[in-house]
Design a protein that fits this description.
Length: 366
């Protein structure tokens, strides 16, 4: 039986809202027991620097020097993660020596699997030196280099956490981009990105309210869905493409809502996220008995109402399932860190389209 290790997992998602850090006791296989966790929001300056990095990365050549804007963003991001690790250790009453590894996802600034390119910034070697803990990062590179989509990357963790739950089951993660993990009756996995999550709505809310989130869905609640615009947005070829498939936050241009009022635009974008998730059913072998909604999107009551109206079967929050919805991805990268060190698969043909079960990750010692 493999040794159970104490690992810190860290996630900074495409919504650019901050860092989630969580402790997990795991063997990288059948055991995954969550421990203390914390969330740290980015300040406006950090968020702006990361946004700039996204824009620069989209134009950067595949080879050549790293643009200075991305170098700046990577240092800022790595330092913020080191601070989060130290804070989590203090809160948990642990020392660095108590932790076997840090699973460090970093920040995705570019994701183009068709070009076999994916780019997560974050200096694993610097983080290892700053914390005194071995760091595993660059989880997606091997998958994408082998022809996989490189996303979604959490399905194997969903599977271990879903033991004993009724199936078929779909786990929905609504981050900057939304994705689903289908778990069949016998544990078979299908996973893919469904479309936009929170990213476009967050950007819209920032533009119209000055706050980088539609808190409690208030802006959307005040508006009405423009069904014509929604239908046009849903007429995107990505929805017909069979899985596995992954998407970038910029794959769905939001020009269609530009002429709408702040409230109507928010209502339409919220409906678009829900409708895109509902269209996942077109690519599943059986109708799910339940949907478990994770990620920041589950905090938006208007989005949850839209999902309950559009999805068949029970619609649960992560907390209804006994999970921590805000930290599930951070926990997952702790789990994947152990799998990577032990050279176990991180992704499967049915989750990313990789040709064969693929391990990955790069280990940095302090």
């Amino acid at each position: 039986m493999a040794e159970v290790l104490k690992v810190i997992g860290m996630m900074s998602g495409t919504s650019l809202d901050g860092i989630d850090a969580a402790i997990l006791d795991t063997d990288g296989e059948d055991i995954a027991n969550p421990g203390p966790a914390l969330a740290r929001s980015y300040d406006a300056g950090t968020r702006a620097t990361l946004h700039e990095a996204l824009q620069v990365a989209a134009q950067a050549p595949a080879v050549g020097p790293v643009p200075r804007e991305i170098v700046k963003a990577e240092k800022l991001l790595t330092d913020a993660h080191a601070d989060a690790v130290h804070a989590l250790l203090r809160e948990a009453g642990l020392r660095s020596s108590d932790v076997a590894y840090i699973g460090f996802h970093g920040q995705t600034v570019l994701h183009r699997p068709a070009e076999r390119r994916t780019w997560q910034i974050g200096d694993g070697a610097v983080l290892a030196q700053a914390t005194g803990i071995p760091v595993v990062n660059e989880f997606r590179l091997a998958d994408v280099a082998a022809g996989g989509q490189g996303a979604p990357f959490v399905p194997l963790y969903h599977l271990v956490r879903a033991k004993g739950m009724e199936r078929p089951l779909v786990v929905v993660n609504i981050g900057g981009v939304a994705n689903v993990t289908y778990i069949g009756a016998n544990g078979e996995l299908i996973a893919f990105d469904t479309g936009p999550g929170n990213a476009a709505l967050d950007d819209w809310a920032l533009k119209h309210t000055g706050e980088a989130v539609d808190r409690d869905g208030k802006l959307a609640r005040a508006g009405e869905v423009n069904e014509t615009v929604l239908a046009a947005m849903l007429d995107h070829p990505a929805f017909l493409q069979p899985p596995p498939k992954s998407l970038d936050r910029f794959d769905f241009p939001m020009n269609a809502v530009e002429g709408l009022s702040g409230p109507n635009g928010a209502a339409t974008l919220t409906a678009f996220t829900a409708a895109a998730i509902a269209r996942a059913i077109e690519h599943l072998p059986e109708r799910p008995r339940a949907w478990v909604i994770c990620g920041g999107g589950r905090h938006n009551p208007v989005l949850m109402e839209q999902l309950r109206a559009r999805l068949s079967g029970k619609v649960l929050t992560a907390e209804d399932a006994g999970w921590r919805g805000d930290f599930l991805e951070a926990e997952a990268f702790a789990y994947l860190a152990v799998r990577g060190v032990r050279r176990l698969p991180l992704s499967l043909p049915s989750t990313t389209g990789v040709p064969y079960p693929m391990t990955g990750g790069r280990l940095h010692s302090p």
